[in-house]
Automatic annotation (TrEMBL), chain A:
It is found in: Cell membrane. This is ABC transporter permease. The keyword Transmembrane applies. One of its GO terms (molecular function) is transmembrane transporter activity. It is a multi-pass membrane protein. The lineage of its organism: Bacteria, Bacillati, Bacillota, Bacilli, Bacillales. The chain crosses the membrane at residues 12-38, 58-76, 83-103, 109-130, 142-161, 193-211, 241-261, 267-288, 295-315, 321-339. Keywords: Cell membrane, Membrane, Sugar transport, Transmembrane, Transmembrane helix, Transport. GO terms for cellular component: plasma membrane. Its main location: membrane.
UniProtKB/TrEMBL annotation, chain B:
It comes from Halolactibacillus halophilus. Residues 25-60 are annotated as: Disordered. InterPro entries: BMP_lipoprotein, Peripla_BP_I, PnrA-like. Gene3D superfamilies: 3.40.50.2300. Residues 1-20 form the signal peptide. This is BMP family ABC transporter substrate-binding protein. PANTHER family: ABC TRANSPORTER GUANOSINE-BINDING PROTEIN NUPN, TRANSCRIPTIONAL ACTIVATOR PROTEIN MED. One of its GO terms (cellular component) is plasma membrane. It is found in: Cell membrane. Its main location: membrane. Belongs to the BMP lipoprotein family. It is a lipid-anchor.
Automatic annotation (TrEMBL), chain C:
Residues 8-243, 260-504 form the ABC transporter domain. It is a peripheral membrane protein. The keyword Transferase does not apply. It is found in: Cell membrane. The lineage of its organism: Bacteria, Bacillati, Bacillota, Bacilli, Bacillales. Belongs to the ABC transporter superfamily. It comes from Halolactibacillus halophilus. Its main location: membrane. Pfam families: ABC_tran. GO terms for molecular function: ATP binding; ATP hydrolysis activity. This is ABC transporter ATP-binding protein. PROSITE patterns: ABC_TRANSPORTER_1 (PS00211), ABC_TRANSPORTER_2 (PS50893).
């Protein structure tokens, strides 16, 4: 769908450069504070890749990020900033656990499907509210989704305390709502990596198909790029706003189901919104809205997230360093203008530079 | 173009490596210094000339290794996790343990709990503590899979064989806070700000209410929950409403939410220094938070000896073996919880002292729960 | 004009972008005190050439001399120091700042770190008086007219000490009166010793104001001529590279039944006032109805209401016998409407999307382009290729983004898309705005061709020439009303001018045509 090979190359180089610069920035900062960056990065990498368990956990974290990243991305493509991914994830989590607890004896395939469907529905509704308000009343989706985040948080906590749970947590869902796959758990030495990763891969593929091959995806892209021309061409802005928000929330909700059923198997009171929601935004930005890109940046973030745990004891570096590296990477993605500028400079220096005419 | 980019990439990569290498030489020394200097100095003065720790003083005790997994608050939360970690550091100093004999694993999200336990597990620690009731499930999951490993759980009771539970009768300290509040209030109205509803904070609420009622059951207790342990803004809002409605002593058991309570009290005093309002702190002595130009408005703080409990449990294990499956409850009698004198009037402090004695000798039985679990 | 010194010499300038030569061995010299026009079609390489003069680009080969000295203009600052200033087509002004603040921006006079506004205001006033620019230095830019904003841009270059001013398509945004004022300002500037390069594709402006003219075609300099000795026709032929006709050849119209009927239509602007007031007219198959009028008299709102982009407050619109009042744009389009919108960047195209996607923008959901909700890119591509060929859209490929095309080719793509759907009724709003003569000629031909095929065509334009050349009947709008409908063959420019100014009524009644 990209116009030219050169664009394609640039689109790949920007995130790679950003990651690199982010790692360098982190290294410089560690040096400035008297830590050894080599030891630190080595601790992270050998920590995660040195053991199937932690690799599995990194992939598990990546699974959730893929969903939230895709969810954020589709709304972004349509021109909306869905900052409420975290809240949509949480309602999806709640819905999946609720269904799983309500029908513990259903056959596994059926129960898992129902739980996931409930989560998608809940997430879609949660985002759809913001979409509908935006479409019909022009309300800022940023503000509405932020408010809905807190609504989700407190509603979930209320439900746990008063309806679903015993104290601060619900019971574990039954084996029939379990997402783990025996051989995968075994392969990763008992990590919580689950069938979600395969669902994520399928969803990445479906997302790509939707955006590039379907008329609905075409409309979403067109409305996002130029709402005026899209209206002129007979597309309904209202419909596309709501559709993209529904899909966005549905994906986040699906992530919530995988998180709830796969990572935890229950629901507990939260003191804040799940970080996977906000990291999803970062993942989408690093992936530049490309589903494959999002998948790979999810893996990077998963590795950073799990690897961070090895910093304090493996290298004597505070694990916040990983957050700084993450933040720096996002900064450099955001500042991709600078990166493009330098890449163009490099190109211009060469007489054989390839550039579009005009 | 590809070649050029490749070249640049490799140059950058090389730069990182070189920078890293330069750093590493002078790095390790600083690293060690900052983290270890206290004990190394002690080692140096304590047993000169020893280069082999294992063979030095109390043999077995120094080989013992302990670790903790924080909850989402992190190790520098100025409260619960921090005092647990301080306890470990104290232990390390006491027994002359090396740097690798105690460690913390920080959780930034609830999804990190289990991987953190597994990390600690891989490092071969003798006891791994989970700090806070939020970690109960994670501890139990990991403990069941590793029946030969010893675990500890703070603030919640687990019946798993290889887990020792360390709980606190927070209600007893809160009871004393209630006594202090009742003896201090002039408006006949006091407030309680809870974090997230649940068994732990309920102990605080119950104890506090009982303590107030013990002195004068006509005093009204305004109970509000923030549904958060982190959002100081909500704490400030709640405190504002309480003070406006006439409460003059507010006790918070809400972690960082409590910072908002302190902020609100300070604002009120600074705009009208004639106000007679107080805050009661939680978990550690929060007197410093109550400083303002006209004095100090922290009436007292309830203290929770998480660090001490961990030290005790660890030493107990070293000396007598691991008390698996047991619950060690720390109350006033065990010095596990307490209140400080703070800015209490003589009369209030006297009443608190009396009440403490009565709780310890069993004359007063402080209720634990009002909250009913399904 | 005799042998005066050369302030600018560009010798054998070549600029390559990859394999593409935007400028190919171009020669240009500008003498002191002259207005030198640079004429060329859109995409001929005028902007590239001027960007090298103003330091935004550096030439691949060739030499630039300023005042006889070899120079290398590596950045805009260097150009500035050499006394070269550019008046951009799109103004670069801060709306919330005053005229003076905009002019001194980046070169503020200050005393002890405080901006010295009085001195600056005085300096600006002096400059303005000297060149007859009549600008109020203290007014906020957002409160002054577009013509005045342009003069602020001119002052900006003068304030920075420019002796050589480059005007990039300066008249595109101006009213006829403002154009006249600009012309006299330019004459005043050269009489004060400045030199001017005027980039344009408007021949009458060149005839009016320029001394010499260099013509560029497809990156090559064709010739430099003395304007007084060259006719407009010769200039146009040189620019396009073939003989161009200014008048549209057309057979007499054969109007048939009415395709579009508008009855008592009133349209409210979002701010609440009536932009279109009780308008009635019809467009017949086989005719071009022109809508003339000064910008802002309700033409845009009228078209928005017909095309469904705006709600009408009252009245009825019928297309092919179907009531389309306040229907959704897609329903109206499917009822037989083709629409070349006034603002092609805002409404006509999704610029970042590819050309083929833009060509399918109206039909992507129909077979064969879409099948059970899936796009058939194979069909879209072959359809796009066909239209690109048929309508001579110049693009490297159909998968280049629409934004990479020149204005004329973008417009061609829109026309291709709209006409190829074979609509019974075609609206062309300002279809040639910003385009060069070659493209204008092409578009006019296509519109008349539609008429001859028996389609109804509604042409809205602010250019009188265009309206008079292409239309069969002309409806004049003034203050939201159609105040007259005249026969294009019988009316004169004077009469239309009067009508557009809202002056005459009795004349309009003399004409007997369908409208109110």
């Amino acid at each position: 769908m990209l116009t030219m090979n050169k664009d394609r190359l640039n689109n790949l180089l920007v995130p790679i450069f950003s990651i690199f610069l982010g790692l360098i920035f982190g290294a410089l900062l560690m040096l400035a504070f008297g830590f050894n960056p080599i030891t630190a990065y080595n601790a992270m990498i050998s920590g995660v890749f040195g053991s199937p368990y932690f690799l599995g956990e990194a992939l598990r974290a990546a699974t959730i990020l893929t969903f939230t990243g895709l969810g954020f991305s589709i709304a972004f493509k349509a021109g909306f900033f869905n900052i409420g991914v975290a809240g949509q994830l949480l309602v999806g989590w709640t819905a999946s656990i609720w269904v799983a607890l309500a029908f513990p004896d259903l056959p596994r395939l059926m129960l898992v499907t129902m739980s996931i469907a409930a989560a998608i529905f809940a997430g879609a509704v949660w985002a759809g509210v913001a979409g509908a308000l935006r479409a019909y009343f022009g309300t800022s989706e940023v503000i509405v989704t932020i408010m809905l985040n807190y609504t989700a948080l407190h509603l979930t906590n209320y439900l746990i305390l008063n309806v679903l749970g015993t104290g601060n947590t619900t019971e574990r869902v039954s084996e029939n709502a379990n997402l783990s796959i025996g051989w995968l758990t075994e392969l990763t030495a008992g990590s919580r990596l689950n069938v979600g990763i395969f669902i994520a891969m399928v969803v990445v593929f479906l997302y790509w198909i939707f955006m590039t091959k379907t008329t609905a995806g075409f409309e979403v892209r067109a409305v996002g790029l130029n709402p005026h021309a899209s209206t002129y061409a007979g597309m309904s802005a209202t419909k596309n706003i709501i559709l993209s928000m529904l899909i966005s929330g549905g994906l986040a909700g699906l992530g919530g189901a995988i998180h709830g059923l796969g990572t935890f198997g229950n629901l507990f009171t939260q003191s804040g919104l799940p970080t996977a929601g906000f990291n999803g935004i970062a993942v989408a930005l690093l992936g530049l809205g490309n589903p494959i890109g999002i998948f790979f940046s999810s893996i990077l973030f998963g590795v950073l997230e799990i690897g961070a745990g090895f910093l304090p004891n493996g290298a004597g570096v505070p694990d916040e360093m990983a957050s700084i590296v993450t933040a720096a990477i996002i900064f450099f993605v955001g500042a991709n203008y600078i990166i493009r500028f330098f890449m163009n400079k490099l190109n211009n220096k060469k007489t054989q530079a390839v550039q579009e005419g005009e | 173009m590809k070649n050029k980019l490749l070249l640049i990439l490799s140059v950058l990569f090389a730069a990182v490596l070189v920078l890293g290498a330069c750093g590493s030489t002078d790095d390790e020394s600083t690293d060690d210094q900052t983290d270890q200097d206290t004990e190394q100095n002690e080692d140096a003065t304590g047993d000169e000339g020893t280069d082999d720790e294992d063979s030095s003083d109390e043999g077995a005790s120094t080989e013992f290794k302990i670790a903790m997994v924080t909850d989402e608050g992190g190790v520098d939360d100025r409260s619960f996790n921090q005092s647990a970690w301080e306890g470990m550091q104290t232990w390390g100093e006491e027994v002359g343990a090396g740097d690798d004999q105690y460690a913390y694993y920080q959780s930034n999200d609830s999804a990190d709990f289990i991987p953190n336990f597994n990390q600690a597990l891989a490092e071969g620690y003798d006891i791994i503590y989970g700090i806070g009731y939020l970690l109960q499930e994670a501890v139990e999951d990991v403990a069941k899979l590793n029946p030969d490993q010893h675990f500890g759980l703070v603030d919640s009771v687990s019946d798993v064989e290889n887990v020792i539970s360390l709980t606190f009768r927070d209600n007893e300290a809160a009871f004393l806070a209630g006594v202090a509040a009742a003896h201090t209030t002039e408006s006949g109205k006091v407030g309680f700000v809870g974090g997230q509803k649940g068994a732990v904070i309920d102990r605080f609420q119950t104890g506090f209410e009982a303590g107030v009622a013990h002195v004068d059951d006509s005093i009204e207790v305004d109970v509000q929950y923030a549904n958060s342990f982190a959002d100081a803004g909500i704490g400030q809002q709640i405190a504002a409403a309480m003070y406006t409605n006439g409460a003059d002593v507010v006790y918070h058991a809400a972690g960082a939410v409590g910072n908002g309570v302190f902020t609100e009290a300070r604002n009120r005093l600074e705009s009208d220094p004639d106000n007679q309002i107080w805050v009661i702190g939680v978990d550690r002595d929060q007197e410093a938070e109550g400083d303002w130009e006209g004095g100090n408005f922290t009436l007292t703080s309830t203290i929770k000896g998480v660090g001490d409990a961990i030290v005790n449990a660890t030493n107990l294990t070293i000396e007598e073996g691991f008390p698996g499956g047991e619950n060690i409850a720390y109350g006033l009698a065990e010095d596990g919880v307490d209140v400080v004198r703070g800015n209490m009037s003589d009369e209030a402090w006297e009443a608190v002292e009396t009440a403490r004695a009565e709780v310890v000798d069993g004359t007063i039985e402080v209720p634990e729960f009002t909250y009913t679990e399904q | 004009m005799v042998q005066s010194e050369k302030v600018i010499e560009m010798i054998g300038i070549t600029k390559k972008f990859g394999e593409f030569k935007a400028n190919d061995n171009i020669h240009l010299d500008v003498k002191k005190g002259e207005i030198h026009a640079l004429l060329g079609e859109n995409g001929a390489g005028k902007s590239t050439l001027m960007n090298m003069l103003s330091g935004l680009l550096t030439p691949t080969s060739g030499q630039i001399r300023v005042n006889g000295q070899d120079v290398s203009i590596s950045s805009p600052n260097v150009a500035n120091d050499l006394g070269i200033g550019m008046v951009h087509q799109h103004f670069m002004l801060v709306e919330k700042f005053s005229v003076t603040e905009n002019i001194v921006l980046g070169k503020e006079e200050h005393r002890f770190g405080f901006m010295d506004k009085d001195t600056a205001n005085k300096q600006v006033q002096e400059l303005s008086d000297r060149y007859g620019l009549s600008v109020d230095p203290k007014k906020l830019v957002e409160n002054i007219t577009v013509g005045m904003q342009q003069r602020v841009e001119i002052l900006k270059t003068l304030y920075r000490g420019a002796d050589i001013l480059i005007f990039d398509e300066p008249t595109g945004v101006l009213t006829p009166q403002e154009i006249q004022e600009l012309m006299s300002i330019m004459r005043k500037l050269v009489s004060e010793g400045k030199s001017i390069i005027l980039i344009t594709h408007k021949l009458d402006e060149i005839k009016q104001v320029a001394d010499r003219c260099t013509v560029i075609r497809r990156g090559k300099s064709i010739d430099t001529v003395n304007v007084r000795e060259t006719s407009q026709q010769e200039l146009a032929d040189m620019m396009v590279g073939r003989s161009v006709s200014f008048t549209v050849d057309k057979k007499p119209a054969e109007p048939k039944e009415a395709v579009l009927k508008v009855e008592n239509l009133t349209v409210k602007e979002s701010r609440g006032y009536d932009a279109v007031k009780n308008v009635s007219f019809e467009v017949k198959a086989g005719e071009v109805l022109g809508i003339a009028g000064v910008d802002g008299n309700g033409q845009s709102q009228l078209i928005s209401a017909i095309t469904g982009l705006m709600k009408s407050a009252s009245g009825k619109i019928t297309l092919n016998g179907k009531n389309i009042t306040n229907k959704k744009p897609r329903m109206i389009t499917e009822s037989g409407l083709g629409h070349i919108p006034e603002d092609r960047h805002k409404f006509g195209l999704v610029l970042p999307m590819t050309l083929e996607e833009n060509i399918a923008l109206q039909t992507y959901y129909q077979k064969p382009f879409s099948n059970h909700g899936f796009l058939n890119y194979k069909e879209i591509k072959s359809y796009a290729k066909k239209l690109i060929e048929e309508f001579d859209v110049r693009t490297p490929s159909e998968v280049h983004s629409a934004s990479s095309l020149s204005g004329g080719n973008q417009q061609k793509a829109i026309i291709a898309r709209e006409i190829a759907r074979d609509p019974d009724f075609l609206i062309a709003a300002q279809p040639t705005r910003g385009l060069d003569v070659g493209a204008i000629e092409y578009i006019h031909k296509r519109l008349v061709e539609q008429r001859d095929k028996g389609r109804a065509v509604l042409l809205m334009s602010y250019e009188l020439d265009e309206i008079m050349n292409v239309s069969d009947r002309i409806a004049v709008m003034y203050d939201g009303r159609i105040i007259a409908v005249v026969d294009a063959k019988e009316t004169t420019e004077q009469e239309l001018g009067l009508l557009m100014a809202g002056v005459d009524k009795n004349r309009a009644s003399a004409e007997t045509v369908t409208a109110e």
